[in-house]
Amino acid sequence: MPSLRVLGVWLDPTLSWKDHILTATQKGIKAFESLARVTSSVWGPSVRKSRLLYTAVARPIMTYGSQIWAVNDKGGPVSQARINAMATTQNKCLRKIMGAYKRTPIAAIERESAIPPIDLHLQSQATQRAATTEHHKVTQEIETALQQIWDATTAPPRRARGRPRRERGPKLESTMRTLHNQAIKINNEARQRQMDERAEANGRNGRRLRRPRTIQSRSKHGNIDAHFATVWKKRWKDHASKAGSRAMTWKGDWEQQPLSLYEGLLKHEATALFLLRTEVMGLRAWLARVGVPDIHPACDCGALRQMLDHILAFCPDLSTQRVELASKTGSTDIRKMLGDKNKVRHAARWLLSTKVLNQFSVAMEVEEEEMEDWSAFQALQDVPE
Ligand SMILES: [Zn+2]
């Protein structure tokens, strides 16, 4: 199908944006491949830096012009089917950033990396764009032109003299207008909520009428961001309630971003922490269950199934490591440590010290050779936040 490139956006004759989304996704895949070259689950830049490579480089390449193409002609979001490939590419990038296994639920990876599902990001971008351009001259001129075309094409045919004029045709509803209205609605709702909260706070203070605490009003963009974050939160909660797992990633307060827990960790430590928080990792019982050939589910100690609970609390071969952990943290309850900024590194180091996951063996050997300060990616340190 022939397409026309206008200001970096591919137009196809039916305005389905299929060609554009395809091209953009391919660019995103290329960006992902560059990301993959500098990062693996056990070496490469920190979570913060590789995450930045995604949000500042790869994602903008993919979502360029999305305020135009990610919106259907009713102002709603583009269909999920159309952006499936793009979502897959984002998921691949996030797995690289966090060192996640393929079978880790994507909701958990998004949560740990603090990167929202791509469809919500697209909607947020489009709505923010509409809020910004609402009063722009160009926008208004386009609206006026659209209205004129609409009036001309929907005007009733001329009537014979003397007859009363018929009513006008249906009202014009442009995508842009619908999006503007949506942005306005989100902002009004946010403002109302803030006023309610303020009133409630004053009410709690009883008769002593204190000067109302100034609540910092969010910007329009902040309100829109917050709105889509709420949608994300709801989605994540649904997943969490279905997960039925003890994994830490499904617990904790939504407002407390787990991403900060990974701050300052070396790549393999961050991966170890991620595996512990999501509880999806290559222990033998799991590998055997997912069908990896030539893997027996038993632990070296003789236990029938090498599972997380076994290595966390029971495996006799790992008692030295547990004692060491207890002497450093005053506890052997690793699950409890996984939400504690001061203890997550110890928990991660513990998993590494058990040597139950082969994927870390090279990283640990490198460490034993005292190359901890060695960095192949010095240049990345200069990337601004
Ligand atoms: Zn064992």
Count every beta strand, where a strand is a DSSP E run of 2 or more residues: 2
| Shape annotation | elongated
Could you report the average pLDDT, rounded to the nearest whole number?
84
What about the largest sheet? 2 strands, antiparallel
Look at the helices and sheets and give the structural class.
Answer: mainly alpha
Order of helices and strands: EEHHHHHHHHHHHHHHHH
Q: What is the count of DSSP helices, taking H or I runs of 4+ residues?
A: 16
In terms of per-residue confidence, which ranges show pLDDT below 50 for 5 or more consecutive residues? none
Residue fraction in strands: under 5%
Give Rg in angstroms: 27 Å
* Fraction in helix: 55-70%
Overall tally of structural domains? 2
Characterise this structure.
There is one protein chain. This protein has 385 residues and is mostly helical. The chain has two domains: 1-155 and 172-207 and 218-252, no CATH class; 258-382, no CATH class. It is built from 16 helices and two strands. It has a two-stranded antiparallel sheet with strand order 1-2. Strand 1 (4-6) and strand 2 form a beta hairpin. It is elongated. The mean pLDDT is 84. It binds zinc ion. Zinc ion is lined by residues 299, 301, 303, 310, 315, 317.
